[in-house]
Amino acid sequence: MKINLNNLSISIERDQNKMVKNEIIKRGIKPENIERIEHVKRSIDSRKKSEIKFVYNLEITLKEAVSNLHKDFSIPKEIKMEKRVPKKDMGSIAVIGTGPAGLFAALRLCEYGFKPIIFERGEMVDNRDKAIESFYSTSVLNPNSNIQFGEGGAGTYSDGKLNTRIRSGYINKVFLELVESGAQENILWDYKPHVGTDILKVVVKNIREKIKSLGGEFHFNTLVENVVILNNKVVALDIRDKFGNKERLPFDRVLMGVGHSARDTYKMLHKNGVFMENKAFAVGARIEHPRKDIDEMQYGKFVNHPLLEAATYNLAYNNREEERGIFSFCMCPGGVIVNAASETGGTLVNGMSYSTRDGEFSNSALVVGIKENEFGDELFSGMKFQESIERKTFELINNYGALTQNVLDFMNNKTTTRQLKSSYPMEMKNYDLNNLFPEVISNNMKYAMKHWEKTQRNFISKNANLIAPETRTSAPVRITRNEFGESISTKGLYPIGEGAGYAGGIVSAAVDGLKIVDYIFTDLVD
Ligand code: FAD
């Protein structure tokens, strides 16, 4: 028999295993009846700095069934994936992009016996590594192989945080698949699971090999230049390899998981009559602190406690008057700031970390919500705004790099004059970011900072620096789908993942890929 015990808090100063068992026994379970105790979730409650606790959701396997369970126990509800069988005669199927959406869609198709052809503009992970290293040392960007583009998509060079706000039976499958492909097992129960870029690279390669073993076919260094649409239906793809060789290949169905940075691909789709619309997104800067400052902010006197990892935070401020959120995003404890450019002549930052999260600094995006038509009603007005900030930054530095400013100087409209310390590997130029951003961004960042100055120790301090700009937090457009996951304008075209505007983050993009395949290529059975 299995039972759950949720929200069990135990001080980090106590022996965790012993206390967990004691708490179960205290609630009437005989010790000899406990077969196994598993963590379903474990989180840290650090709201009271004098008493930090782990909070557990547990699944306990009992050798014998027990009646009259204590009220704190519950019987687990089994989350089952719906049973599905593949449809027949679906024709030839292409998947564009090997980010989480494309990879998981391809995997699902293979599991159903389809043999998708997968196109990826960037290189396989090992060569992509070299392209990024070369970019950092030479400042020559490969617009098809960089932090955004290449095997594994934008998620490969990330912190690999797997938090998601969505609830879906598909999440379990994503996590199990990641573990089977080399991710740490504790992602199955940790409240804030993360993988780290070093392990993600292995995971991505293993998923690729699994797809290949099931009949999927990969074409790396292959840009889909054009989706050929006839009578509002996809009929073919025009592809170009890295030597410039072009080919037109007929396809009946295309799953499009191109991410939010493929501006050329968005424009091509629009030109070909695919319907899309502007959507809200967010823009701001990375904020970076010495890791110890953030650990102290979150853990107080427990700062170096051996059971505690590098601390994370999640901050949000609501500007009610403007109905606008200002929030931290994609926090990378013990991580590094990276240059996330994918277009020649534009520069921007993002953050990633390694599985150990033991770097000297901790960083996070600090961004201001931008409404869907805030910079103009015409399609792509938001995307053009992102692009203009990236280009302006490039022009100010006269290279790829980042603009930097101490937080206190930013709040006082003063250019920082000292050289700032950062994990960022490329050129940094001190600049008053109030002159980079429109007021709607800089003013709102300051409102939030003033609030956090009072509420979050160490957060707004001489040690906190801004590295800018952070422009690509989410897609600025949505390629609108119908209830079956198909483009509302174009038959046979299935936009998936973050670029489609239906996901944000690794897990939700992967779930979207799985879900849309199930919608389209299978029938639900009882
Ligand atoms: P993407 O991952 O963007 O993949 C799209 C793929 O399509 C790319 O590989 C691209 O090369 C390819 N492509 C584009 N156009 C074409 C074309 N025309 N032809 C062929 N191929 C094409 N999310 C988290 O949940 N946790 C994190 O810790 C996290 N950290 C991040 C850190 C960084 C540095 C970045 C950049 C992003 C991070 N994210 C994180 C966001 C996350 O990576 C994305 O939400 C996720 O990867 C989106 O998945 P996707 O499959 O929809 O698109």
Automatic annotation (TrEMBL):
Pfam families: FAD-depend_C. This is FAD-dependent protein C-terminal domain-containing protein. It comes from Cetobacterium ceti. Transmembrane segments: none annotated. Residues 280-473 form the FAD-dependent protein C-terminal domain. It comes from the Bacteria.
